[in-house]
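#struct-help
A.M.: can someone run this one for me? Single chain, 262 residues.
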Amino acid sequence: MTERAPLPVRLVTFNVHHGVGDDGRHDLPRLARLLADVDADLICLQEVDRRFGPRSEGVDQAELLSRALEMDLAWGPAIDAPGPAGSEDGGDRRQYGNALLSRLPLLATEVHPLPGGGEPRSALRVQVGLTDGALWVTTTHLSSGSAADRARQAAAVTELQITAPGVLVGDLNADAGAPELAALRERLSDAWQQAAARSDQGGRLSLHREAGLTHPARRPRVRIDQVWVTGGVSVADARVLDGAGTSDHHPLLVDLLVTPER
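D.P.: on it. Structure tokens below:
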């Protein structure tokens, strides 16, 4: 039987800080231009607002980015609250969470609330179609305040993403080697470490060159934006891109080679 050739998939994960750059301005067209230049098949976003409030001018960021980039949208709210009081049925709901924009067909979409206290967290799990098979993609944003909560959340998202071939991406608010991410390391592979080629914003002379640091954008110190892969997915290239002041993070791009299961 002839072996299937791996299929190339370009994926970007980016915590967009509800479209507010390091200059304090909400500028969705600026963000859309940056994302368009990346030329990705899949764009996984965290901290996205949908009619959330004044900080993002009350707009539906997920829908506007989907239209601007001419990509299909999958949406996974972490916060879902009624709209303004006094409007019929509470008005449009105020939402905040994870989005996936795709050039590939969306075959299935699931939203999974994650355990933990404080700000609600969720995972968006999407199956996308490939020329000859499918890929599962889970996008998430783990808690920032509690390592114990992150450990529970990491275990939960790992169970979601053990179906191969698949990728788990997002702002995990912990370094890839942190104790609370042990569940990921047991079942998945860190794409940054697996990549055949790597580059970032460290610069030629930086002590942190090729460390994959993504946050904070002005002087990155931590590698909290990550991609993890199952079997059947190899990583040709991993790059921390220049976020050009569109967020308090830099985006992470990976060029994947996906071998669909028979």
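A.M.: thanks! The two ends are 11 Å apart (CA to CA).
D.P.: also worth noting: The first strand starts at residue 7 and ends at 15.
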